[in-house]
Amino acid sequence: MLVIISANRAVVAAIEKLHPHTQQEPIIELKNLTTKSADSLWGQFFAQRGASSFWTQLQAQQPSMNFNLKELNAPLAGIVSSYDEVGAGIIHYLTCKHVEVKSLTITGNLEYDSKEKLTSIPASIGQLTGLTTLDLHHHNLQTLPETIGQLNKLEILSLYLNNLQKLPDSIGQFTNLTKLDLDNNDIHKLPTTIGNLTNLQELNLFGNQLVELPGSMRHLIHLKGLSICDNKLEFLPSFIGELANLEYLNLTTNGLKALPSSIGQLRKLKELYLGENELQELPTSIEHLTRLEVLELIHNQLQTLPASIGQLTSLVKLGVESNQIKSLPETIGRLSKLKELSLDFNQIQKLPNSIGRLSNLERLEMDSNQLHELSTSIESLRNLKLLHLDHNQLSHLPTSICKLTSLERLDLAHNLLHELPEMIGDLVNLKSMTLAYNQIYKLPETIKRLTKLEYLNLDGNPLLKITN
Questions:
Q1: pLDDT at residue 467 in the model
Q2: How far, rounded to the nearest angstrom, does the alpha carbon of residue 190 sit from its chain's CA centroid?
Q3: Which residues lie below 8 Å from residue 77, measured CB to CB, with a gap of 6+?
Q4: Mean pLDDT confidence for 241-251
Q5: Which of 82, 99, 171, 289 has its CA 20 to 30 A from that of 241?
Q6: Which residues are CB-neighbours of 160 under 8 A, at least 6 positions away?
Q7: Concatenated DSSP letters for 22-56?
Q8: For residue 463, what pLDDT is reported?
Q9: Are 212 and 190 in contact (CB under 8 A)?
Q10: pLDDT digits over 187-239, tens only?
Q11: Buried-exposed string 246-276: b where 16+ CB fall within 10 A, e elsewhere
Q12: Is pTM beyond 0.85 here?
């Protein structure tokens, strides 16, 4: 084939008359490809659109296929082709050739402003009835064809990072679906037919615009994981307690002002995330969540924790930062498995003596509170590795703090300390100690025994010497 390069159209035309065989190969249109079309034509269609690698994979006819639009090369000159046409070509070939594909992934370019993404899915996708996994994440899809409901063997459907505003009612036909990922879309309302997905075990709805949940969701009795964080929910329906198999529930960043008492019925729950809401109190029924291992309550308006929290004896992590809590209940000492306790940015003035019973505690964070003193029972926290107490009102430390021999990081910046306990050198595993902006004028000589110390901050102190 003769390739002619010239800016002069008259010259090109004259040469083409002398060489009648220089015409470009015909452009293959998708609408002209059928079940009887030769493989060579299908190959031309994809090659002309910079998708030769896609054609190679299609020819192999494997049960699992994975396409990434980022891998496309520049299309043949003269072809005005969209990424939708390439996506439609993949689906059209699979249906025309009756390929028994079980898993299909078409990924858009992960870069936010990339144009290498699908904006639509052809209705013919409903003919791929053997699919058990369909992954169409990171595109610009706004709607789905109703025919998608014909994929009644689907077990996993991933549609995260699209622009979907609603779901078709036919989604209720996915009665074998176990995982549905709709994170980061623009969905305002779920269809009531979602209640038909009775085998669903994981439902991800992070980053949508939901203001309520349909009552039909009470039928999702096999659901184990439910994420609805970063939506616009102002209340949680009482039927949440009927989802008795839930192990993971994430409601972070909504507008929740209260929780229904029925939440106490979730006896299998292991992780509960309620941060960044407007909760003012917790229902006492929370005491029934005895399998709970993680409870996150950051950035709410809580003024107290109920005494019933002491019943959560499986808790490993408790986060209550950025609330308005003034004191902790004595029952907190019953949380014998607790490893992490975060209480930053509250108004706590004193820790209860029962804090010393948290024998497995490894991290205690209480920055920006109103602590005037530490309970001597703190000496019992022999597994404590991190202790953050900066921005409080501590004027002295109990000698018992020197018994925390597992401590690796100690932060006491911005307090009112004049000196450190004489036996501070007993903290032989200490790697980092921040004492900035206190009123310390001397350091005990035993500080020299901190041979593992890598970081020591003494800024803003009237320090004179290390005592003999």
A1: 53
A2: 21
A3: none
A4: 98
A5: 171
A6: 137, 138, 181, 182, 183, 184, 185, 204
A7: -PPPPPPPGGG--TT--HHHHHHHHHHTT-HHHHH
A8: 83
A9: no
A10: 999 999 999 999 999 999 999 999 999 999 999 999 999 999 999 999 999 99
A11: bbbbbbbbbebeebbebbbbbeebbbbbbbb
A12: yes
Question: For the chain, how many residues are written?
Answer: 468
CA angle 341, 424, 459 (to 5 degrees): 80
The tokens for 327 are: 């004191």
Beta strand 409-411 with 386-388 is parallel
If residue 411 lies in a helix (H) or strand (E), which one and from where to where?
Answer: strand 409-411
Amino acid present at 431: K
Structural tokens at position 270 = 């292991």
4-10 average pLDDT score: 44
Range from 50-64, 103-117, 380-394 carrying the lowest mean pLDDT? 103-117
> Distance between CA 373 and CA 200 in Å, rounded?
51
Radius of gyration, CA atoms only, the chain: 32
In order, the DSSP letters of 63-96 are SEEEEEGGG--PPPTT----HHHHHHHHHHHHHH
Torsion angle in degrees (nearest 10) through CA of 328, 332, 333, 336: -150
13 exposure class (CB count in 10 Å sphere: 0-12, 13-18, 19+): exposed
Alpha carbon distance 213, 232 (integer Å): 11
Tokens standing for 15?
């040469």
- Give CA 391 to chain center in angstroms: 31
Q: List the structure tokens of 436.
A: 């900035």
**The two structure tokens encoding residue 237:** 């329906």
Region 270-299: mean pLDDT is: 97
